[in-house]
Write a structure and sequence with these properties.
It contains two helices and seven strands, in the order βββββββαα. The longest helix is centred in the last third of the chain and has 9 residues. It has one domain: PH-domain like, CATH 2.30.29. The protein has a seven-stranded antiparallel beta sheet. The protein is an alpha+beta fold. A hairpin with a 5-residue loop joins strand 5 and strand 6. It is 17% helix and 41% strand. It is elongated, with a radius of gyration of 15 Å.
Length: 103
């Protein structure tokens, strides 16, 4: 079992302290008092929106998660980085385009 602490941000509420638990093919989003969501890991889409922010969604509900350890969380959940964005925050898209496109 992997548990990642951090803060949860829902679009219409103030940020709260929470965690994401990954165990036995399930992703659980928790606060200290209750479970907010429990999804099959294969149904979860996790997109890295910045170095420290991740958008978790099952297609119906979504949460923004700011983990204390973004690298370990990204590896554990299998986060997606969209390199097609014209202004990639990571600078990777431009470097990849330069490497594969002739001058």
């Amino acid at each position: 079992m992997s548990v990642f602490g951090g803060s949860l941000h829902n679009h219409d509420q103030a940020p709260i302290k929470g965690s994401v638990q990954i165990e036995d093919g399930r992703v659980r989003i928790m606060t200290d008092r209750r479970r907010l969501a429990s999804w099959d890991q294969s149904q979860v889409r996790c997109e890295r929106s910045s170095v420290f922010r991740f958008e978790l969604s099952d297609g119906l509900a979504s949460y923004e998660f700011h983990p204390a350890d973004p690298v370990a969380f990204s590896d554990a959940i299998g986060a997606v980085v969209d390199l097609r964005a014209p202004k990639s925050r990571f600078g990777l898209a431009d470097r990849i385009r330069q490497a594969i496109e002739p001058d």
